[in-house]
Structures are given as structure tokens and as C-alpha cells.
Design a protein that fits this description.
UDP-N-acetylmuramoyl-L-alanine:D-glutamate ligase, 9-stranded mixed β-sheet, 17 strands, about 35% helix
């Protein structure tokens, strides 16, 4: 037997009836293309503050030249270097391309070369990096990937070098972050907390962010990789399935465990909504009012790289909520955005124009609102 209790409504679902819970007889239409198109057109009218772990991805490319005389290693003749925005920086980049740069970043960076590179990269992506805080005790998080090729081979990654400080930020820096949270929150429509476990998102930062967002009636989305129970009372949390399983302590293997996971995540986080992303299985939105919406993957055939897709989802979801979308509508737009970026290699972004064009080609009939049967 499985008990669900929320807002003084009690629903008892027997596990033998789980299949009935997912029967097609319980399907209702929850989104339509015209509504989604209208929401998409309003994404550039709202603003978001991104608070989190910011990082750079440095991509160094070269051509295989010869074997070194110093050691049995390749010598690469450098061809070019690309600097990309990673972690929370990528989420901010996704927001910027959708809302015409109405996004600011609050995080920490080192007083080093890559700190300057990060600032420039954020500015080049039309992101306001002014609130970023310099922490002289830390290095700017940077993942350097060195790749090489020869005339007869494809480009392959040879080595990756990580520069990062993963200890929690000091109390002094934490106080500066909290001060800026209180100062900046009233000026944005939504807040995104992006936790990559690098040390910026302490419990005090989490609590003050959500408390302040609630005080000013702001939407707040959370994208975290582990320990989701640290985040209480957010508007929406968007974990992928492996990260969700870390929090609930068991594997999601069937419909019964999927339903139980949604309930447990809502209980553990006290959030209004949990959007569970499941790769090729699509997404499932669990809401505190008892609604459950299943959204199939819109694109299963042209998937080249899922890097950064989670950032795209949470970026488009928080923008959609700020633009007036209901949870199911925001989730559908997040799914649509992800279906576009996975067609490209590396962490990609999408635009309002791409979303509008692509939505005409997708089938929304399989988006299902699942109703529990009270017994």
C-alpha cells in the first residue's frame, strides 16, 4: 500500500492499481501548441538571476606532429583554442540566448588568469557578470581538454586538466554572497540555483536564496547533482534520474518506483514541483497538488551530445514559469529546448526562433496528465 498526503488531501493507492494509474483512460490534454508558442514569445520579457558554481571549459586543439624525444608522448602543433561556458555559466548562457541577455550571475571566481577569461566569456555571451565575487583563496574552475588529430584520424581527446577548489567558500565570502542575494533578488523575475558541488552553494546560501525569493514572490528553480533534500521550498527542482536516485536511496526501475520516487522527492524537498528528467524516456513532472504529467522525449533519433542538456532544461523552465506558464507547459518547453541542443556537439544553446520553428514539427498528443484513483 502507498500513502500520499499533501495539503490535507489523502490519496491511497494500492500497488496493484499502479497500472490503472497509468492507463490511457486517465489521460487528459494538458498543453497545446498555440499556448506554448505564446509563452515562448514572452521568454525575452523576463529576467533571471543565476546563483551557483560557475566554470569554464577550455578546448585546446592541435595536429599530431611527432613523438617527443623527451618522453613517449605525442607532440601537437597547436591549431586553435576555444573557451566555452560550463556548469552554472552554461545555464546562464542558455538563459541569455532566450531572453536577450536579461540575466546576471552571482558566484565566485579566482583572482587569476582564468577569472578574467571567465568574465570576458560571460560578457561575450551577453551576460551581466558584475555581481561575481573574487575569492583570492580559490582558483577559477576550469576544465581544460587537449585534443589532437592527424591527417588520417578524427580528433580525439588526449588528456583533461581540472583546475578547481572544491572546499566550501569561507564564511567571509559566504557573507558577501548572501548580502548580494538580498540586494539583487527584488530586481529579477526568477532565481536559478545551480549546484555542481564545487563549493559555492552552502546551506546558508541555499536557505537565504529561497527565503529571499519567497519574500519577494519570485520563482525559484534548482538544478543540483546530489543531496536534493538540502533544498527546501523551491518552486521547481529538475534532477536527472541518477541524481534523484542518490537522494531517494533506491533505483527507479518501473512504474511503481517512479511514482514512489516522485512522492518522496516532493516530501524531501517540500518543493511545489519536481521535474524528473529521464533521458530517452522523457520527463515526468510531479506537482504538490497531486498532478503528474508524463512528457515523452521529443527527439530520440538525432541525439549527438547530451552535454549541458540539463542546463538547457532548467534555463527554459525557469524562464517559462516567469513568462506565465503552468508547470506542465514549462516542462514541455524545457523538453523542446533539450531536443534541439542535443543535436549539436558540446554544450549548445537555442533561441526563441528555433523553439517556435521546431514546435510545429512535434507531437504533443503523448503528453499525458495522469490521475490517481482514490480507493
Amino acid at each position: 500500500m502507498y500513502f500520499y498526503s499533501k495539503l490535507n488531501i489523502f490519496v491511497i493507492i494500492y500497488l496493484s492499481d499502479i497500472k490503472k494509474f497509468f492507463d490511457k483512460g486517465s489521460i487528459m490534454s494538458v498543453v497545446n501548441k498555440e499556448t506554448l508558442k505564446n509563452i515562448i514569445q514572452n521568454l525575452n520579457k523576463v529576467s533571471v538571476l543565476v546563483i551557483g558554481d560557475f566554470a569554464l571549459d577550455e578546448m585546446i586543439y592541435g595536429n599530431s606532429h611527432r613523438i617527443s624525444r623527451e618522453a613517449p608522448v605525442l607532440i601537437l602543433k597547436h591549431s586553435h583554442t576555444k573557451t566555452l561556458l560550463g556548469a552554472a555559466s552554461n545555464a546562464a548562457h542558455n538563459i541569455s540566448t532566450l531572453n536577450s541577455g536579461k540575466v546576471s550571475t552571482l558566484g565566485v571566481k579566482g583572482d587569476d588568469y582564468y577569472g578574467s577569461v571567465m568574465t570576458q566569456a560571460l560578457q561575450d555571451a551577453n551576460i551581466n557578470a558584475t555581481p561575481m565575487i573574487i575569492d583570492e583563496s580559490r582558483v577559477t574552475t576550469t576544465k581544460t581538454r587537449i585534443s589532437g588529430s592527424s591527417a588520417q584520424s578524427v580528433t580525439q581527446q588526449i588528456i583533461r586538466i581540472d583546475r578547481e577548489t572544491t572546499e566550501p567558500i569561507s564564511k567571509e565570502v559566504e557573507d558577501k554572497v548572501i548580502e548580494k542575494i538580498c540586494e539583487l533578488t527584488p530586481h529579477f523575475d526568477g532565481i536559478l540555483l545551480s549546484d555542481y558541488g564545487i563549493g559555492m552553494i552552502t546551506q546558508k546560501v541555499i536557505d537565504k536564496t529561497i527565503e529571499t525569493a519567497r519574500k519577494y514572490n519570485k520563482f525559484i528553480a534548482v538544478d543540483a547533482q546530489e543531496n536534493l533534500s538540502r533544498f527546501k521550498n523551491a518552486t521547481i527542482i529538475t534532477p536527472n534520474q541518477p541524481d534523484a536516485e542518490k537522494t531517494i536511496g533506491y533505483k527507479i526501475t518501473n512504474q511503481e518506483t517512479l511514482l514512489k520516487a516522485g512522492h518522496d522527492l516532493l516530501e524531501k524537498t517540500s518543493s511545489e514541483m519536481v521535474l524528473l528528467t529521464r533521458g530517452g524516456e522523457g520527463m515526468v513532472l510531479f506537482e504538490s497538488n497531486g498532478n503528474i504529467t508524463s512528457i515523452p522525449a521529443f527527439n530520440k533519433t538525432e541525439v549527438f551530445d547530451v552535454t549541458g542538456a540539463g542546463d538547457t532544461v532548467v534555463a527554459s523552465v525557469i524562464l517559462s514559469l516567469c513568462a506565465g506558464a503552468r508547470g506542465a507547459e514549462a516542462s514541455a518547453i524545457g523538453n523542446l529546448a533539450a531536443s534541439i541542443v542535443v543535436k549539436h556537439f558540446g554544450a549548445a544553446t537555442t533561441t526563441i526562433e528555433e523553439l517556435t520553428e521546431t514546435i510545429g514539427d512535434i507531437n504533443l498528443d503523448n503528453i499525458q496528465e495522469l490521475q490517481a484513483k482514490i480507493v
